[in-house]
Specification:
Elements: H1 3-6, H2 33-60, H3 82-85, H4 164-179, H5 209-214, H6 221-226, H7 228-231, E1 233-235, H8 236-242, H9 247-251, E2 258-261, E3 272-276, H10 277-288, H11 292-335, E4 361-362, E5 368-371, E6 378-381
Antiparallel strand pairs: 1-3, 2-3, 4-5, 5-6
């Protein structure tokens, strides 16, 4: 059998045939100008007829145009008529908070007539234009204008009439005046050298006038840095703890002059008191304790007393803890059935037990202990 004879060429699909009937619309290319004109006129007539019907339907439903369901009658992109939204025809079902009677006054009333809800009746509306500032109850210059101490201006605040640059300059001049530096430094006379104050260490004329005024010590800044063991400053706590000085002695400016500085830990705390080291040592070694060795002896004696007080306090608390522990252990053993009853009962018998205490013997802690001869109960004895 020949294979080539069985294979044949595949037939091609013929194009679809256009079936034309009498009811079919002829293609646009076959329309005549008269037919196109007639089709356009019919389309415009249909559109005008549809607009006329929509206008009639909107006119019939103008009375209920405020309801949400009426918007469904509008075509997409259409607006409501002015008669539908005017206030001349307000329906009786209008829910407007501004109107008590929708049929009167066009459905509107002033806002002052609106009453708040029951939950907001306690709300108070303040008119700040009619309120008076009472300064929180504090007295002001208007209350007592003749009291200068009451309304004295604060020196730390910038006055209202002064600009910021003027205030900074004023602050700088005040700090220079306090430190006696710059234009406020005392003048030196070349003619009268005997009256000039010089440094007590190097003889320089450039001394710290602030220290000379407070401490009465003429010393220059370079010598203060070279000799810190003499001219360093001590705080009040250091002078009290290291040199065993009391508060009345430190507060006496004639005895020990001091320099006040703002507290570095907190600005609202009291000012820090600074003392000159060599003045504190001269008073402590020379007048109060006699020498540095005597100060060391007193210091060690106080440290021993402080340590002894701590040990005595610890022992007393330890003894109280031992007493509580023994009583608790005795009660636990009695509840567990290990013997013993109430305090004073006779052990093993139903009657009362009278303790027969032996002689008090001091234990390792030095506390006297008595022991019952019959039951063996121990009691510590304290003598006051």
């Amino acid at each position: 059998m020949n294979v080539r004879a069985m294979t044949s060429e595949r037939p091609s699909t013929p194009p679809p045939q256009l079936v034309t009937t009498d009811l079919a619309i002829p293609p646009e290319s076959s329309l005549t100008p008269e037919q196109v004109k007639r089709i356009e006129i019919n389309r415009l007539k249909a559109k005008a007829l549809r607009d006329q019907r929509e206008a009639e339907s909107r006119k019939q439903n103008a009375g209920s145009s405020l309801r949400r369901s009426d918007n469904s009658n509008l075509a997409p992109g259409q607006k409501r008529a002015h008669s539908a939204i005017s206030t001349s025809n307000v329906p009786a079902t209008l829910r407007d908070g501004r109107s008590k009677d929708p049929a009167k006054n066009g459905g509107f009333r002033p806002l002052d007539e609106i009453q708040p809800a029951r939950n907001f009746t306690k709300y108070v509306e303040y008119d700040f234009s009619k309120m008076t500032d009472t300064k929180g109850g504090f007295l002001t210059a208007e209350d007592d204008p003749h009291n200068k101490a009451l309304h004295m201006p604060n020196a730390e605040e910038k006055p209202a009439h002064m600009t910021l640059k003027e205030w900074e300059r004023h602050q700088l001049l005040r700090s220079l005046r306090d430190r006696k530096e710059g234009p406020f430094e005392p003048g030196l006379s070349v003619l009268k050298k005997e009256g000039n104050k010089v440094c007590r260490e190097c003889g320089s004329l450039e001394i710290d006038w602030k220290w000379e005024e407070i401490f009465g010590c003429a010393i220059c800044n370079s010598c203060k840095e070279k000799l810190p063991e003499k001219y360093s400053l001590l705080t009040k706590t250091e002078a009290r703890e290291d040199y065993l000085l009391t508060d009345p002695e430190l507060k006496d400016e004639e005895l020990l002059p001091h320099l006040e500085r703002p507290n570095p830990h907190k600005s609202t705390w009291n000012n820090m008191m600074l003392f000159l080291r060599y003045q504190v040592e001269e008073y402590a070694f020379g007048k109060k304790w006699g020498s540095a060795e005597a100060l060391d002896v007193e210091f060690h004696r106080r440290e021993k007393e402080k340590k002894k007080r701590k040990e005595d306090k610890f022992k007393s608390k330890l003894q109280e803890l031992k007493k509580k522990t023994r009583v608790d252990a005795y009660r636990r053993s009695r509840k567990a059935g290990g013997g013993g009853g109430e305090f004073g009962d006779e052990m093993g018998r139903g009657g009362k037990h009278t303790h027969t205490w032996g002689r008090a013997v001091d234990n390792a802690e030095g506390i006297g202990v008595k022991k019952c001869v019959e039951c063996g109960m121990e009691v510590e004895e304290l003598e006051f």
